[in-house]
Amino acid sequence: MQRLHARYPFLETARESVATEAVDLATVVEQDRAVVDRARQRVITALEEGDTGEPHRDARIELLSYPVARVLVSMLEERVLVRKYARAEAETAYDRFTADMADTTELKSVESAGLELSDLLAEFDLHGAVAETASGHRIGVGTYLPLAEDLWGDEWRLVNRSLNAGEVPVDEGELLTLLREAIRTRIEDGLPFEVPDAIATVLEDDAAQIREVLADLELTREIDTVVPDLFPPCMKSLLDQIQKGEHLPHHSRFAITAFLSSIGMTTDQIVELYRVNSSFGEEMTRYQTDHIRGETSPTEYSPPSCATMQSYGDCVNKDDLCERIPHPMAYYEERIDDADDEEIDDWREQPDESDNERASGD
Ligand code: SF4
């Protein structure tokens, strides 16, 4: 059973077994360095790789590292970390349970470390809402909607589903994706929580290491979507000034150009977005953009962090979200993640004549 819990620590029974076996977390973090090391690695790998990394060979250490990882995530109080961590845990669980389900050998049941589809449906109380059909499954619309809410792609939108008597047909792969979402939501719920001082003090260095990774993280090229309405206030302001033909100091022009490049815009698209007034210097823009993108220089530059933006006076019109993020890219990523499909109106997919109007906010 411990192996099963170590592989799927989000299970209710795993939580109970930690509660009975693990005594109190303060003692674990103080006395069991291997657990803390694996917990820190769990979070850092989640940030860097999008999964939780190699499991510890000792199932007890692996299992206990999960609640300690949640403590570490809570200590940082960064929403982007909570999201990335929950996603990575859910992704790891998904890889494991899809492998378990594909595995038809006897070994699995002998070691009882695998999960069946019915186990997962029971875990999330979904048996009543999901029914098997000849071609897949049907799922009640009230259950489907919250599970599909954060999934990308038009195929998940209800209008594109043949809803029948309040039920949505899904194939096997889609059902497993929805279960991954159920896991992610459970992991994300309740994070971050208040960490007792006694535990936080012991884990300070580990939390600092994670903070460093988070700050250094190049969140570049993860988002390939250009929605000026969702830009951070600093970048909106810089873009606005460029489009009005105002002269920007080098650091400001660098910041906005590196930002646009990081969200996936090509040099041509950046030139196009800037080109709304007669004083536009296309040649200079091309030169600078190619340089920042690493096409005419040995380095591809990332946009500056909020701290650097502040020190140059480029951090303006801060809003609530700004208080919680360390980097303009994190701001944009979160806005994109939280936006409804209808809000994701990629500037590059707009008809030409409306581009400049939209981008200038007219
Ligand atoms: S806090 Fe960061 S994202 Fe927000 S306006 Fe300032 S620099 Fe931009």
Automatic annotation (TrEMBL):
Q: Which domain of life is it from?
A: Archaea
Region Disordered: list its residue ranges.
333-362
Instruction: State the UniProt keywords alphabetically.
Output: 4Fe-4S, DNA replication, Iron, Iron-sulfur, Metal-binding, Primosome
Residue limits of the DNA primase large subunit C-terminal domain?
A: 225-326
Q: How is the cofactor bound?
A: Binds 1 [4Fe-4S] cluster.
Q: Name one GO cellular component term.
A: primosome complex
> Which Pfam families does the record associate with it?
DNA_primase_lrg, DNA_primase_lrg_N
Q: Cross-referenced PANTHER family, in alphabetical order?
A: DNA PRIMASE LARGE SUBUNIT (PTHR10537:SF3)
Any idea what job this protein has?
Regulatory subunit of DNA primase, an RNA polymerase that catalyzes the synthesis of short RNA molecules used as primers for DNA polymerase during DNA replication. Stabilizes and modulates the activity of the small subunit, increasing the rate of DNA synthesis, and conferring RNA synthesis capability. The DNA polymerase activity may enable DNA primase to also catalyze primer extension after primer synthesis. May also play a role in DNA repair.
The protein here is known as DNA primase large subunit PriL
